[in-house]
Amino acid sequence: MLDKFVAFEYVGCYQSDVRTQCFGKRKTFNVEINIGAPFLHTDLIPEKLNSVKKLEEEDILDITAYRNEKYVDDGSNEKLESILQFIEKMESDEKNLKMRIKSDIICNRGLLYKLGCMGNLKLRAVRRKNVIFMCLESKKDTARDTIHSHSALKFEKMITDDETFMKTSRNFKNLRSGLRRKIVQRMSFDSATVLSSAEIDARDKDGNSVEIKLVWKDLTEDWYEKKSLKVYLQCYMANTKQLLIGKIKQREKFQFVVDEIALIDRDEIIHDINFVEECLKRVSEKLETVRNLLTKNDQAIYVRQIGINDFDHEYIDADDCEFVPQSFLDKFD
After folding, report:
1. Is residue 276 a part of any domain in this protein?
2. Chief location of this protein (predicted)?
3. Would you list the DSSP string of 147-160?
4. Residue (of 224, 214, 206, 91) closest to 153 by Cα position
5. Could you report the per-residue pLDDT of 93-117, keeping only the tens digit for each?
C-alpha cells in the first residue's frame, strides 16, 4: 500500500566492528561486507506470526544490567563511518561516486524516520562529488539510555544464535555493542534516491530481517497509540516485515526479566495508515528542500527542526561537516 511513496532496492549487508581507542577520544571502524544478522533461537520465539509465547521458568531471560558487568557502548552516535567503508568495498570499478552508489543522498535510517515523525532534531548536510551527505548531530547518552541499551543488547544476544554468547548465559562480564550488522539499500522517494544503512537485529529461519524491541506493558491500545508509529517507521525504513517484542517484568527491586515474547507482522502494529503516508510525504518534501539548498559542490547547511513541520536552516562552511573525511573523497573522481 505504501509502495507508491518509496521503492526499495537491496544493495548489500555488512558487519561493523567499532572499537574505542585513545581513552575514548577516537573510534575505529572495521567493516566486513556480506555478513548478515544472527538467527533467532526457534525454541524461544512463537511458532506462528502474530502470537505470544509464555516462557517456561527455566527459559525466562534475566536482562538486568548488573553493576559487575562491563558494558561498553562503542556503537552509539555513529555518523557515516561504516556506510562509507561499505561504499569503498563495493564490488565496483566505478570511480565516479554518484555513479557507483546510483543515489543522490547518503544517510542512516535513523535520520529518515526522525525527519518523518519527530519534532526536535539537528542535522548537517554537505554536497561533495555531486552527492549530498546528511548526518544527525550527536547527542550524549544519559545514564538511563545506557542502562536500557545494556538490557536491550543482553536480550538480543540471548535470543539469537550469536557465536559470541550462549542463550542460557545470565551474566555477561564483558558486553560490547560495537559489533553490529547492517543492510544497505536504495530508497527511491519522489524527490530523491537515498542510499541508507540500517541496523538489523536478527533474522528468522528463512533469512528475513527481524526488528527486536523491549516493552514494559502489554501490547494494548495505549502502546499502539503512543509507540507504534515510531517502531513501524523504523521497521519500514529498513524494509523489515517482522517485529519481535519481549515483555519486561520486574521480579525483585533491581531484577528485570523477560517472560513473554511476541512475534508480530509489522503491518499489524499500525492503525492509522494515513498518518504513515503523511510521514513519508514529509520525509520526501524535506529531502527535496535539502537538494534545492545544496545545488553546488562544497555547499553545506545546518538544519534545526523545531516541530515536525519547521525546517530552519543556515549555510555553513563545508569543512564543518567532518563526517565526510577527505580520505574517502580522494578515492573518487
Report:
1. yes
2. nucleus
3. HHHHHHHHHHHHHB
4. 214
5. 999 999 999 999 999 999 998 998 8
Write down the residue that cell numbers 551474566 correspond to: 171
Q: Taking a C-beta distance cutoff of 8 angstroms, is the pair 330, 87 a contact? A: no
What does the pLDDT look like over 200-226, one tens digit per residue? 999 998 999 999 999 887 666 566 666
Nearest partner of 308 among 176, 122, 151, 117, judged by Cα: 117
Going by their DSSP bridges, the two strands 7-21 and 26-33 should be labelled as antiparallel
| Triad 127, 131, 133: Cα angle to 5° | 65
Q: Domain for residue 333, yes or no?
A: no
Residue 110 resides in a domain: yes
CA separation for the pair 164, 292 (Å, rounded): 46
Could you give phi then psi for residue 199, rounded to 5 degrees? -70, 135
**Range of the structural domain that residue 255 is part of:** 7-327
Using DSSP's 3-state secondary structure scheme, residue 277 falls into helix
Q: Which amino acid is at 35?
A: I
